[in-house]
Amino acid sequence: MILPPFELHNPNSIKEAIEISQKVKNEGFDYVSGGTDLLQNYKNRLNVKPHLISLKNIKETTSIKDFNIGAMVTLDEISKSKILQSNFPGLIEACSQVGSILVRKTATIGGNVLIDNRCYFYNQTPFWRTSLGSCLKAEADECRVIPQKEYCVATFSSDSAPMLVAVDAKYELEGKSGKRIVKSGDFYTHDGIKRNFKDESEIITRIKIPKRTMDLKTGYEKIRVRDTFDYPLVSVAAALKTNKDKKIEDMNIVLGAIGTYPIINKDTTNAFVGEKISNSIIEEISEKIQKKAQPYNNLTMPVSYRKKMVGVLCRRLLKRLTNS
Ligand SMILES: Cc1cc2nc3c(=O)[nH]c(=O)nc-3n(C[C@H](O)[C@H](O)[C@H](O)COP(=O)(O)OP(=O)(O)OC[C@H]3O[C@@H](n4cnc5c(N)ncnc54)[C@H](O)[C@@H]3O)c2cc1C
Ligand code: SF4
Fold this sequence. Notes:
Elements: E1 7-9, H1 14-24, E2 29-32, H2 38-43, E3 51-54, E4 64-65, E5 68-70, H3 75-80, H4 82-87, H5 89-95, H6 101-106, H7 109-113, H8 126-131, H9 160-166, E6 170-175, E7 178-183, H10 184-187, E8 203-208, E9 217-223, E10 234-242, E11 248-256, E12 263-264, H11 266-270, H12 279-292, H13 303-322
Parallel strand pairs: 1-3, 2-3
Antiparallel strand pairs: 4-5, 5-8, 6-7, 6-8, 9-10, 10-11, 11-12
Helix pairs in contact: 12-13
Bound molecules: flavin-adenine dinucleotide and iron/sulfur cluster.
The site of iron/sulfur cluster has 14 residues, from loops.
């Protein structure tokens, strides 16, 4: 599949990138970092824009300083970062399970938290898609998964975002109205087309990890068709703090690839604060989270299997993090 024509812009600073975005906004544009998600969609003629503004030459966002990760840092660089390896192993686990090594050498963390939501009826060639009449997220006005739905329920498929949400990371954004910082957990929306609350002109410049993450046990589990290559079909990110008596002081469990955004289970996990970690408590937590999970029927594996796997991954992850 070949790429469609577009005009490529190569700014050297964030300011210049935003200025270009304002000049071409009426014609339509996308920012592009590694291009590993966006250009696949372009090849499939999905929501192609006439202008691409590359963030590749912008040096301001290419390093990891303390707990601030530049948006252009690649997933491979994150996997090798000593500071993150010792203080945030969950992020290493999430990033090193994205696609394949070739993808991770190019793919950036900024692009990863912003990837397009996925759906069996959408991520297809134009020939496949239009033979069914296409759908709301592409060329038509009806959803193929839930026809009576007024919005798209394509699945949230980023591996790093559920882990970032679990530790309450923040995204730093810069756009035509200046800079702002948004909590990752408040950034995403239920609509699989809109996906998040980013203004069109805004660029994610940095991901800010709270210092308290170094006191947490963090981990990530994922199920996919091919372990060397694929997007998640279900994923679970956990951040946990226990005291010396193994009692839970704080716990976040966030699901990826289940809904249209990362699913936070704070009501369920808060109810277990103060409980001593044991196999039966882990069983109870996992069962409750599985029960609440409602995957949509729009990825390659059946909903019943993906729902069951929520419990399996939760149990596996909590046992691993607590040596139970
Ligand atoms: C074979 C294959 C397997 C894959 N498997 C996985 C997987 O298992 N898990 C997974 O999470 N992903 C997977 N991906 C998707 C993709 O590789 C990653 O999500 C990657 O991290 C995206 O980053 P990127 O820099 O390439 O983003 P791009 O493709 O450049 O951009 C993605 C989106 O983010 C926007 N964008 C990018 N950077 C910024 C920024 N700094 N500010 C504002 N907007 C921005 C773009 O406009 C676009 O909408 C896979 C891709 C391929 C080709
Ligand atoms: S969920 Fe519905 S509207 Fe969204 S991509 Fe799938 S078929 Fe299209």
